[in-house]
């Protein structure tokens, strides 16, 4: 539900109390930006973020789980944690970062002091199971580190992470026997019933290993693990708890006899006993998407020694390095929000490859990467817009591995398709479009190399011509996706057309003129779903007629659009904004319609059955990605001051400090990346072009330290709420009359300075020649 995200006095004070001003000053002076991150932001409401320990783009996301409800009720627990929940049921090793869908939550462990219960129990009934109450006052959330006191056991739990290993330190109360419970039943997709098979065994050297196969979002996903302790076990019990487990009409055989060495089944629990401990119990866990042997190898290589504090220090250092490319000034609250957003933009995609190079592909087979790290966790529909462009700017070397990973996935795909929404190498087919092509093209156009461009182009064309995907067959034949053949045909036509344009841009840059001509022509297909009579994009039937009846406010599965309505998707032609302006009837008609959208009085209840449409400003819905570029479109129609005005509305109302600081799912870093670009003062409206639309900055100064050794600095003065508009802009001391930056401008280094003022400047950036480039000639 929409919430006001303004910085209220008490929430600002909370940020200041948890991040001492001295620490902030030290971080600013020494580039130690991890100290300014607050991982709690987005862990409440619909942010779907987790507060636990991970390293940049790491395989491990070790975090507390407060609930794992059944799939029908799992939406708010997509990351396993909701800030307002009263109990913790354990700590698992894999989590999505801000996704709109649930799964993972693998290898859940719970330290227990005293009597052991084998099931999590009811959070409303203390002592009914192994879960424990906790108090947020005992939590510590930092990049790469999480700690909490489990009140029911008096156990202090501390977590940190490296690339493939989760590190635990549990301090037990004196005089009570210490146990560690391992539960292989839970899945964030559904607590019970999604495990197809699992095994658990104690190796001769005391290493605990196991695997499980789940029927979750990616059916048949396999994950294995290896676990070791720094203390000898005094005893252990392995259970198969299938008593009440019913799956597709099959009821388990009931509690099987406990075993000390091995169990197989679909509801396995292990309890490892350590007696009364005089020192903390340390646990290290490695995972593998391939095998137990690989998990052991990962643990042997990445999990050496028992120095928890050293690994915590290494995790902090990894985050400081990842965050180092931007030094930003601002108030303490601004800096916390900025560096937290930057942190969240660098959690995914995730390493999905073992130390020997093996990974699981979309064909469920084992493949081997050579010369690059394989990454997965791709929410393509979201991250191509801003998160991946941000990483191209800040970490282009990492982007080269991302592109090689996409190509490797396509080569392993039974359908010759690039990933659509993939994790741990497997495909879910969630969402629409084939936006991996935009990520690859954006990287190539902006100069990223280190991957085989010819292989990439073949993968892109193969994806865009696979007729069975999303009714591409009819799209290629008719020039649109017919709604009587494929749901959401309107928005799918628009998205395919943009992706086609991205392919064309890379083909043109590579000199592949035949491919360029084919996909440049396809990129104009958006015109086939434009209805000049209503002034909206609409889905067509196979006979060429628009579907009736038509309501531009309607949204939901089976409608013309994906997670949106006509008010939101009718602006989606990022490759040809000039053509869209002409279709609307010129500049004034275009901006008048934009104003009408933002200023509309809309009851949020209209979207009560569409979970992702949140953060409403009129019909604009910042909580979902189709709206993310819209505020910048005034730039293209000669009214950049309105872009500046709308951006302030969004920044004031959709982002804030504290757990409820995100109005919608972060979607693997997209919401956060939008914030970063907008705070800096520009945004990639059209990935696969070299231009960024200029908005207005929200920080007095920010310096981007580029991988080529140059620094690009953005400054603004006066920077306060009394001066919300851009009066003038200079680039390296010379007046900048255009309302866009080129990628080359940034890479060259220098200074972009904004002079801010109280009233709109209605002459700056209004000329046609000043506007961002688009395909079609401008028509007034």
From TrEMBL:
Residues 294-757 form the Glycosyl hydrolase family domain. Its EC number is 3.2.1.-. Residues 1-25 form the signal peptide. Gene3D superfamilies: 2.70.98.10, alpha-1,2-mannosidase, alpha-1,2-mannosidases domains, GH92 mannosidase domain. SUPFAM superfamilies: Six-hairpin glycosidases. This is GH92 family glycosyl hydrolase. The keyword Ribonucleoprotein does not apply. The keyword Signal applies. It is an enzyme of class 3 (hydrolase). InterPro entries: 6-hairpin_glycosidase_sf (IPR008928), GH-type_carb-bd (IPR014718), GH92_a_mannosidase_put (IPR005887), GH92_N (IPR041371), Glyco_hydro_92 (IPR012939), PNGase (IPR050883).
């Amino acid at each position: 539900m929409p919430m006001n995200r303004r910085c209220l006095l008490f929430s600002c004070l909370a940020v200041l109390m948890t991040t001492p001003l001295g620490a902030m000053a030290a971080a600013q002076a020494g580039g130690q930006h991890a100290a300014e991150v607050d991982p709690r932001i987005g862990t409440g409401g619909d942010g779907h973020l987790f507060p636990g320990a991970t390293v940049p783009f790491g395989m491990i996301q070790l975090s507390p789980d407060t609930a794992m409800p059944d799939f029908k009720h799992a939406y708010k627990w997509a990351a396993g944690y909701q800030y307002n929940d009263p109990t913790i049921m354990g700590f698992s090793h894999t989590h999505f970062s801000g996704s709109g869908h649930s799964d993972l939550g693998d290898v859940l462990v719970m330290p227990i002091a005293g009597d052991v219960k084998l099931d999590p129990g009811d959070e409303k009934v203390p002592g009914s199971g192994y879960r424990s109450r906790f108090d947020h006052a005992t939590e510590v959330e930092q990049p790469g580190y999480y700690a909490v006191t489990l009140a029911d056991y008096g156990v202090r739990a501390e977590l940190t992470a490296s690339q493939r290993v989760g590190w635990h330190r549990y301090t037990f109360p004196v005089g009570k026997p210490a146990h560690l419970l391992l539960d292989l039943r839970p899945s964030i997709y559904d607590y019970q019933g999604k495990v197809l098979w699992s095994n658990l065994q104690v190796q001769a050297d005391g290493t605990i290993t196991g695997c499980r196969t789940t029927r979750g979002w990616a059916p048949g996903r396999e994950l294995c693990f290896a676990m070791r302790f720094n203390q000898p076990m005094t005893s252990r019990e392995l259970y198969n708890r299938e008593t009440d487990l019913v799956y597709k009409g099959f009821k388990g055989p009931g509690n099987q006899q406990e075993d000390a060495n091995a169990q197989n089944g679909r509801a396995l629990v292990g309890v490892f006993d350590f007696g009364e401990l005089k020192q903390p119990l340390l646990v290290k866990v490695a995972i593998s998407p391939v095998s137990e042997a690989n998990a052991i190898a990962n643990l042997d290589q990445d999990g050496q020694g028992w120095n928890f504090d050293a690994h915590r220090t290494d995790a902090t250092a990894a985050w400081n390095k990842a965050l180092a490319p931007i030094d930003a000034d601002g108030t303490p609250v601004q800096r916390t929000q900025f560096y937290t957003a930057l942190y969240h933009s660098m959690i995914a995609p995730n390493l999905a490859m073992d130390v020997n190079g093996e990974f699981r592909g979309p064909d469920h087979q084992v493949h081997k990467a050579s010369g690059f790290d394989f990454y997965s966790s791709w929410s393509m529909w979201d991250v191509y817009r801003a998160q991946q462009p941000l990483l191209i700017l800040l970490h282009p070397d990492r982007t080269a591995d991302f592109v090689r990973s996409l190509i490797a996935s396509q080569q392993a795909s039974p359908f010759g398709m690039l990933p659509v929404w993939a994790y741990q190498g497997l495909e879910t087919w969630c969402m629409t479009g084939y936006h991996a092509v935009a990520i690859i093209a954006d990287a190539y156009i902006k100069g990223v190399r280190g991957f085989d461009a010819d292989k990439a182009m073949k993968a892109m064309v193969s994806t865009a011509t696979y007729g069975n995907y999303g009714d591409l067959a009819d799209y290629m034949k008719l020039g649109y996706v017919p709604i009587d053949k494929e749901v959401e045909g309107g928005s799918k036509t628009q998205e395919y057309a943009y992706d086609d344009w991205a392919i064309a841009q890379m083909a043109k840059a590579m000199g592949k003129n035949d491919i360029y001509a084919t996909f440049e022509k396809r990129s104009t297909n958006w015109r086939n779903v434009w209805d000049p009579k209503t002034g909206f994009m609409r889905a067509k039937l196979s006979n060429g007629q628009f579907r009736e009846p038509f309501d531009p406010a309607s949204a939901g599965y089976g409608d013309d659009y994906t997670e949106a309505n006509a008010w939101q998707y009718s602006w989606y032609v990022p490759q040809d904004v000039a053509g869209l302006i002409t279709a609307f009837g010129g500049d004034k008609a275009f901006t008048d319609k934009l104003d009408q959208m933002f200023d509309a009085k809309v009851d949020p209840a209209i979207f009560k059955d569409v979970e992702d449409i949140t953060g409403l400003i009129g019909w604009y819905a910042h909580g979902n990605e189709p709206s993310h570029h819209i505020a910048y479109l005034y730039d293209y129609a000669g009214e950049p001051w309105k872009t500046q005005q709308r951006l302030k509305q969004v920044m004031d109302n959709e982002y804030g400090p504290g757990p409820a600081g995100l109005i919608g799912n972060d979607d693997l870093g997209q919401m956060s990346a939008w914030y970063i670009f907008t705070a800096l003062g520009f945004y990639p409206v059209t990935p696969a072009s070299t231009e960024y639309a200029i908005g207005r900055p929200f920080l007095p100064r920010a310096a981007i330290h580029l991988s080529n050794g140059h620094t690009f600095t953005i400054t603004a003065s006066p920077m306060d709420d009394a001066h919300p508009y851009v009066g003038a802009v200079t680039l390296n001391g010379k007046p900048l009359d255009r309302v866009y930056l080129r990628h080359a401008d940034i890479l060259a280094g220098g200074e972009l300075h904004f002079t801010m003022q109280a009233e709109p400047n209605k002459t700056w950036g209004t000329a046609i020649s000043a506007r961002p480039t688009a395909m079609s000639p401008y028509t007034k």
